[in-house]
Amino acid sequence: MTHAVSIGPLHESPIGTTLERHLLDRQRQMPEATGDFTGLFQQIMLAAKIIGSRVSKAGLSGILGRTGTTNVQGEQVMKLDDFANRTIVQTVEAGGHVCIMGSEEVEEPIKIPSQYPQGKYVLQFDPLDGSGNIDINASIGTIFSIHRRVTPEGQQGTLEDLLQKGRDIVAAGYVIYGSSNMLVYSTGDQVDGFTYDPGVGEFFLSHPKIRIPERGGIYSINEGNYHNWSEGTQKWVDWIKAPSENKQAYRLRYIGAMVADLHRTLLRGGIFVYPPDVKNKRGKLRLLYEASPMAFLVEAAGGAASDGKNAILDIVPTELHQRTPVFIGSPVDVADALRFAQH
Ligand code: AHM
Ligand code: MG
User: Fold this and answer.
1) The whole model's pTM is what?
2) I need a labelling partner for 273 at 20 to 30 A (CA). Which of 30, 170, 235, 340 fits?
3) Is residue 307, in this structure, part of any structural domain at all?
4) What are phi and psi of 309, to 5 degrees?
5) Residue 328: inside a domain
């Protein structure tokens, strides 16, 4: 028998690193790991694949529109953010890894039905952030974070498990449904990005160890709100878009979906801001489902995230749907913005 021509050591990968392999390799580095975290993560990724598949067919399947409308077959159609919410709940609830969930789409905590085991983790998510972008075929995303429960094991979780600060997050991430679908996640020590191959049905490591640049050249804010801002925010925007002695004029980019704006900020640097304004005195974005997970990722990549006074990760939540101002991105750009915002 003739032997095939050797093309390199057997364990050198011809296929790249799958998300599954990445998770298993990391699990083995933690001797105390039980596989619970990996199991939960795999369920979230299954939900993301189902949501991504449905998002990519949104224009075809008659699913656009409001809850309660009917599609061409006369069937009731579900709004995509309802669909995404239900997909995550149903994919995760029976797995035995979580004891309670919180969703931007649901007013109250989502309990795990008593017929299922009550796990040791807590999952919070924004199932489809930026959903206003669906109808114009622009990027949207899913944001999630995982905490350890703080109430006794074996019982149903409570609000106390959900109201934990971002500093105690075990892992956070987002999935962006864009020109390609990507997962970006961190367990706090590094941030890795994976691109989805729809032919294989798997995420592959494409952006290992993402580091946000110290300073960028882009600012991202809804400038249509200019007249509703504080004087400090107005002065900062006037300053950042003008050339000055030690910097170029920054360019403005604003997609209006936090996942898309943050994804660009993480890769290219710069700053994303949703400040308080006269209509949204505490800001618009939700601490638990949007600000905290993104702050966790950006800090792990070497960036900064503040509510204008304090690090977002240090805010102790008092309500499930609490809002917060957000100044997030490259550390130098955030420090510059805070000098203005604090006046
Ligand atoms: P949503 O969770 O209802 O989709 O709203 C959150 C979105 C963010 O993704 C985005 O950054 C922000 O709202 C945009 O708000 P605005 O249209 O006020 O600029
Ligand atoms: Mg949202």
Assistant:
1) 0.92
2) 170
3) yes
4) -130, -50
5) yes
pLDDT in tens, 118-174: 999 999 999 999 988 887 888 999 999 999 999 999 999 999 999 999 999 999 999
**71 & 199 share domain:** yes
* pLDDT of 4 higher than 80: no
Pocket probe for ligand 1: among 79, 124, 128, 129, the residue whose CB has the most ligand atoms within 8 Å is 129
Nearest CA to ligand 1 atom 14: 256
Ligand 1 close to Cβ of residue 142 (< 6 A): no
What is the residue range of 114's domain? 19-207
Shared domain check, 223 and 201: no
- Regarding whether 175 and 40 lie in a shared domain, the answer is yes
Task: Give the DSSP letter of residue 90.
Answer: H
* pLDDT score of 60 more than 90: no
Distances (CA, A) of 321 to 162, 239, 282, 288: 11, 33, 12, 7
DSSP 172-187: EEEEEESSSEEEEEES
Q: Is 163 contained in some domain?
A: yes
For ligand 1, is residue 151 a contact (CB within 6 Å)?
no
Contacts of residue 196, Cβ cutoff 8 Å, sequence gap at least 6 = 49, 52, 180, 181, 182, 183, 202, 203, 204
Give tens-digit pLDDT for 280-319: 999 999 999 999 999 999 999 999 999 999 999 999 999 9
Q: How far is the CA of 326 from the centre of ligand 2 (A)?
A: 13
